[in-house]
């Protein structure tokens, strides 16, 4: 049986298992953050918070006051993506950052949940706000 010659890789060049998918995730997240910033005044600020078992949430606030979020399991991935996209990260979602957030009709309807014209799933009456 013939042996196959192996070429040795230089030390430190092998990628640890799982690092390539992690880099791809960071790249995907960074593209989404850049896209959000471009669509909302050219810049954005953000804040990363822990969601529990689901992971972490990056809340983005655009220069125009629009806001959105991204969720990922890894806090470091969200932080790195925000840094790559040029987003200024804040420790808390308070003060000036929170004051800049502008909620539109979509956000208000989501906050109201089933109360505005939705079906409660049980066949019962659903409260409908007056318009």
Automatic annotation (TrEMBL):
Stretches with biased composition (Low complexity): 1-16
Regions of compositional bias (Basic and acidic residues) in chain numbering: 17-26
Region (Disordered): 1-26
Protein name per the record: Uncharacterized protein
Organism for this UniProt entry: Streptomyces radicis
